[in-house]
Amino acid sequence: MARTRGHRSAGANAAACPGIDRRQKRSPRPGTNTRIAIRMTPETGWHGYWINPGDSGVPVEAEWHLPDGVRAGALEQPSPTLLELGGLASYVHEGAFTLLADLAIDRSVAPGTALPVKVDLTWLACSDSLCVPERTTLQLTLRAGDGAVDRSRQSLFSAAEAALPSSGRAQGRLEAADGRWSFVVSGAQGLNVGRTYLFPMEDGWFEASAKQQATRAADGTIRIEVAAPGPAPSPRFAGVISDGRQSFMLTGLKPDKAVAPVSEPATAEEATASEIPDPATGREANGSAPKATPPSTGDVPALKIALIGALLGGLLLNLMPCVFPILSLKALSLTRAGVDRRAARLEGVAYFAGSVATTLLLGAILIGARALGHDIGWSFQLQNPHIILLLMLLSLAIALNLAGLFEMTGVSVANRVMGKPGWSGASGRALSPRSSQLRAAAPSWA
Questions:
Q1: Alpha-carbon torsion 298, 302, 304, 307, what sign?
Q2: DSSP string, 124-179
Q3: How far apart (Å, rounded) are the C-alpha atoms in residues 280 and 167?
Q4: Taking CA 56 as the corner, what is the angle to CA 180 and CA 303, rounded to the nearest 5 degrees?
Q5: Distance of alpha carbon 326 from alpha carbon 349, whole angstroms
Q6: Residue-wise over 338-369: b if at least 16 C-beta within 10 A, else e?
Q7: I want to staple 298 with a disulfide (CB 3.0 to 4.6 A). Which of 183, 207, 216, 325 is the partner?
């Protein structure tokens, strides 16, 4: 059985190396469905994201290129796990996982017809400290025939299907009161209630980081209570309940209108027009765009923490040995210039504007490179051992130069600009690496 492996993007440190397999059928019969599998294999310490990624992340997305008479269904994914990191909670796949998709072969396809299947995959792979957007194209060729079965791939598909949430076995109802959702689930026998967690397929029902309280009643039903941040984002709930070993699909749970924590109940016409989300995608079956959900107040503390962290990081950076002396040199340059307070203030503002412009320029270059398809992140070059060796040799050369073993005269191509008095010279000094003669002594990409 041929298997096409996706190539790992240059410069990326990892994520997943996907591969594609056809169903046990070597030659699918026209008028039937055949299933294909996409195997995602993250490197150690990396993970991918579920249909609903939670507070952060991007799920695997597929764009199919199929011949006439072949249609692809939605990607089916195994149940996720909860990952809490840096104040954010995400629904992720840790370790290798398999995506399944059904291909429908039309009856009009003649036996013996070659069926080239091509899919463009995009996904986000993250570690505890870095996220890398990745993409690849996978291809395989089927041939319409009699539906012969290939037993060599049966174990792969059996394991992948076993990892999918069980459909139709678990039933539930949704109650709401006092700003909390209560999911009452029956038919999910065997779940460890102490490890049970509910994953919504659609964002907006509750925060991914919200604490869930699961209890089991005497009749075996499981009740999960979680805070509701606002009104229901759609008329019906769809999700997965899992304890890490078993998982069950829940669909069509309609909130109790009498006690639902919504400010304005949906009208009968609105509820009738909306359809149940597709269990495989979490989207409505009629293809309409998902409704906008009100902003969650849970994001505000995370934003405050991020802003405070950025401020503290900036202050700490200015106290680093490679930066702090530059501030004193700048202050000395102002005192020696003998300018008045207004001119000094103007020059300081210009220096600040030049520094900000430099940072924005670097950020724009990085964003532009990623938009062009280059999978790079901030300080990505420090993941390359050759770059690290080069920086170590550069540091050694600078140290020997300062020790007097040899002397090197720096070359400046912007002395005319930086030597000017006033705001133009200050902004030029901020934009140029020559504004920091000491910075070269300790290379830093922080």
A1: negative
A2: EEE-SS-EEEEEEEEEEEEE-SS--B-GGGHHHHHHHHHHSPBPSS-EEEEEEETT
A3: 11
A4: 80
A5: 16
A6: eeeeeebeebeebbeebeeebeeeeeeeeeee
A7: 207
pLDDT of the residue at 438: 31
Task: Give dist(CA 444, CA 179) in Å, integer.
Answer: 49
Alpha-carbon Rg for the chain, nearest whole angstrom, is: 29
Q: If you average pLDDT over residues 284-297, what whole number do you get?
A: 44
How confident is the model at residue 151, as a pLDDT?
74
- For range 366-377, the mean pLDDT: 74
For the chain, what percent of residues have pLDDT higher than 70? 71
Q: Is the pLDDT of residue 12 over 60?
A: no
- Please determine, for residue 80, whether its predicted confidence score (pLDDT) is greater than 90: yes
Give the C-alpha separation, 353 to 427, whole Å.
Answer: 7
CA distance 376 to 321: 28
Residue-by-residue DSSP string for 412-435: -S-HHHHTSSSHHHHHHHHHSGGG
Q: Which H or E run contains 273?
A: helix 268-273
Segment 401-419 mean pLDDT: 66
| Statement: residue 416 has pLDDT above 60 | no
Tokens of 268: 């009968």
